[in-house]
Amino acid sequence: ESDTASEISFQFNKHKKTPSIGSHSSDMASVSSVSGSVLSVYSGDFGSVDAQGTVEFALDYDEKNREFQVHVSQCKDLAVVDEKKGRSDPYVKTYLLPDKARMGKRKTSVKKRTVNPIYNEVLRYKIEKMVLLIQKLNLSVWHNDPLGRNSFLGEIEVDLASWDWSNRKLNWYPLKPRSLSAVNGVDHRGVMNLSIKYVPPGSLGKMCPKNPPSGEVHIWVKDVKDLLQLRPSGVDSFVKCYVLPDTSKKSYQKTRVIKRDTNPVFNHTIVYDGFHTEDLKDACVELTVWDHEKLTNHFLGGIRLGLGTGLSYGISVDWMDSTQEEVAFWQEMMSAANEWIEGLLPLRSL
């Protein structure tokens, strides 16, 4: 079925016990820890502030240094976040979309107690012009909260393919409410073709030499179609896999890298054992696709297979957020023991 296969032991224990040899006992005390590899453009607390005001900036591309420059000048008439004190502590944040990972983020300093902040700062990206032209610039303004619950004040999105690069002057632009498509993650990132199977403990009969003493989840990553192309040479992609809540090295598996192909064929099977049938309600298989580079890997999209209840072993977790399609896929696997369930699922921004 596959040219490479990985097998990993995985045992969910709600009560700490001595793990058996060859299996990993998951510490439920850390059940709320999340695989923190992906950050949303809209991380933070939006609050109830309506977007208002304007931002002054200019865009330029330095051909000599191959550098994209965002000159953030100032903002005017921003919304007031703390009405009692009549203050906002604003800063500007930029992303190059569709790359929403940490590498794509830049931000200015925070200006305190003002709705008319002056920055005069340049946010820089080392990027090839051809790659830049297939991206969008998302520029947003935020109120900085000491406790980390930052409030969204407005944004503007620029399609860099249609930008007039002869225009290097500072211009004013109205700040808009956050875009519905970006909040809901409605952006096409490709489609993953895969099959999954659950083998309950002892279900293959005593005479079967491969009869597992504990339950197994088999994940067969076949291929991915229509990946985002972040550079002219194509995409060097691979797939990571975790079974949450465990984000340890024992849970982590990955495929080989397929080079220069937006439609990579992986044909890679991963087997996790140590499953009890009741664990399927609280576990979540996270598959993410990455573009491989020497210095850093860029997130392209992912899926989460689970029941999407928001809970894991009674604890609220934000990674139990499967879509209707992902939930239906997982439920079909749960109801059809020992059978391969095939699916074609859209990648999304986790």
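(ticket continues) Second input and output from the same batch:
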Amino acid sequence: ALNGFVLVVTSEGLIFYSSHTIQDYLGFHQVGVKPHSARDLVEHQGNWEFRRNLHWALNTPHAPEGEPSAEGGKSLGSSAVTYKLDQLPPENSSFLERSFVCRFRCLLDNSSGFLALNLQGRLKFLPGQNKRSEDGSALPPQLALFAISTPLQPPSILQIHTKNMIFRTKHKLDFTPLACDAKGKIVLGYTEAELRMCGTGYQFVHAADMLYCAENHVRMMKTGESGLTVFRLLTKENRWKWVQANARLVYKNGKPEYIIVTQRPLVDEEGGEHLQKRSMHLPFTFATGEALLYQSAYPLPGFPDPFQSKGKTSKSKKTSHSHGGCSQKDGIDPSSLLGAVMQQDKAVY
């Protein structure tokens, strides 16, 4: 419900917690940012400002004379000071309230690499850190920054609307849809039964976006995450809907089990901008054999065998698999990219 995300940073500058909505604003996954140093996220020029706000007296952390020395570790507050409870102001003190602005690294395409955030909150004691002093005795809970991070520039009504329509889908490893949340059913118009049609789900993707999506699909199978992918999905009303998606593998017992995709609807203008930035290669260039991706057996009259063999090579590198329950009409595997295009009604273009 917040126009922002919750952030908890220890006095040493380590991210202890972030709410999952950090992905909507910075593009980083919730699990991926902790327990990393906030220095990795904060713009270099803002490190000093961020570091002094982690200290109760707004001093850059250094160990004054007569106070305990800092614990080791190269972090944003690498010289953070540990205090006893009687050395700190009471937890409800105005000394501990914080409100400041910092620029954070942002992976989203519309941010120029950084996003200015207003952090508002207070320093509070953070129990459960289980830290020990040099003599081995347990240290009392130390202060940490509990803040709500909101973009300095308020979002437009359109951005608020699209943010509220972020939806998630679940897929098999070859991208066959398995499930869709309630917002996804509103955006796309399909029921789950309609999404689980014969095919790998590529039959819902625009032909000009298929290879682009397939490349990121392969990247996800290798690295666990696809990165931001902008493409067009076919709605039940036979319209193309631009979405910005990020897919990631979910593992069970060390093996990939299924794929979860977080998707944000875009307006056509945003999608068009992404399309212009993308390195364009037409979907099925017969001259390069890309027409044969996932489909090496499809006969192409008039094309020599070397192209088909090249297509077979491309196919072997991909991750899609044919479905045993799907009939192959005219020898075209419905789980292939070519089969996915053949399933689409030409009128939608």
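Agent notes: The domain at 161-283+337-348 is CATH 3.30.450.20 (Beta-Lactamase). The mean pLDDT is 75. Closing as not reproducible unless the customer responds.
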